[in-house]
Amino acid sequence: MEKIKMTTPLVEMDGDEMTRILWQYIKDELLLPYIDLNTEYYDLGLEKRNETNDQVTVDSAMATKKYGVAVKCATITPNAARVKEYNLKEMWKSPNGTIRAILDGTVFRAPIVVKGIEPCVKNWKKPITIARHAYGDVYKGSEMKIPGPGKVELVYTDENGNETRELVHNFTSAGIVQGMHNINKSIESFARSCFNYALDTKQDLWFATKDTISKKYDHTFKDIFQEIYDAEYAKKFEAAGIEYFYTLIDDAVARVMKSEGGYIWACKNYDGDVMSDMISSAFGSLAMMTSVLVSPDGYYEYEAAHGTVQRHYYKHLAGEETSTNSVATIFAWTGALRKRGELDGNKELMAFADKLEKATLDTIESGKMTKDLALITTLKDVTVLNSLDFIRAIRQTMEAM
Ligand code: NAP
Ligand code: MG
Fold first, then answer.
1. Does position 31 have pLDDT exceeding 80, yes or no?
2. Is 0.85 topped by the overall pTM?
3. Ligand 2 is a single-atom ion; what residues have CB below 5 A from it?
4. Which residues have CB under 8 Å from 279's CB, separation 6+?
5. Residue 31 to residues 27, 37, 139, 391: CA-CA distances in angstroms?
6. From the CB of 96, is ligand 1 less than 6 Å away?
């Protein structure tokens, strides 16, 4: 059989620990036998980041801007323990943060739905994709403890020194206060990323804030989304047969619980932080969650939502057998390959991505899975496979298709 050709390189960002091992298995067993894989390779493994003073991370993000699509392996975000473990020159920043700062994107996280792994919420039939605004609000807030009676005000001083004041509170006793901000430009990018991704995936887009209470702050989010929707996206949404729907955050939460899924839920920074953990745990497992960074300019970076699975890696190093779930990493590859195919008009590559995803899900549905899934599945008579055998089982399913 002739291998599938690729015209434009895909940016490949390799990573750390157990996911780096899975990365190689996936390439060897599921990709290289079928595709003339054309990637521009960047090693974001911690050793290489340290060696290049993290320049390799910046280079990989710039390459993503150049080619449009990247696939990323999970990477270590160093903390004090890692600085020691890897003898680092510095506590390098999170690669995801660095890449996101360069691409200015929004992260969309979606569960991979498969028969046998049932969501806690019975009526959820299709994935719910969370889009979290990744800038500002309480994450860039400043706070004070107020020791006793006194006045707290917000003061804006413009470039000419003119002041505008707004009373926060006249304290008569001790208390606390918080100031936070956002930037219209960032909200606009967030809105465009969400509208583009909804069109891309042909799903409705929901957005919710607390604009009835926060008449300036949250209301600005609502207004910006609506203005951009009306001016740039309303016609495209109509043509695609999808809907943009705004409601209050409490109403949204109630509707989400009653829904059957199948839409994108755009969240402000804090709401997204909280709700994405609820959605992923209610759908089953972090190992069954994909994540894609979509920039407002139309660049895409696909990855798994979980980390480098450090505990499994140490077992692997000790020569013990591991049963690490590679599904989210496989879907990062298929997402990226499909998008590359779409941009290049490469139907074969798109069809391959569909086929590999189906083979992965069929393998699980036939009862072959990794240990984490075996613990939560409703299927009977399951076979627990080790990390490599699970990937080989997917290859067998694909060969049989
Ligand atoms: P983690 O790698 O997601 O793993 C946490 C635990 O979840 C694992 O110990 C394992 O549980 C389970 N798990 C996660 N993914 C799994 C999979 N594919 N198959 C089976 N089980 C899985 O999170 P962490 O241990 O907190 O972080 C490890 C490293 O990853 C850190 O250095 C962190 O900086 C990095 N990280 C990177 C990213 C990213 O690059 N996007 C995201 C998060 C964390 P059991 O051990 O009980 O089996
Ligand atoms: Mg969180």
1. yes
2. yes
3. 273, 277
4. 109, 111, 128, 130, 265
5. 5, 7, 40, 11
6. yes
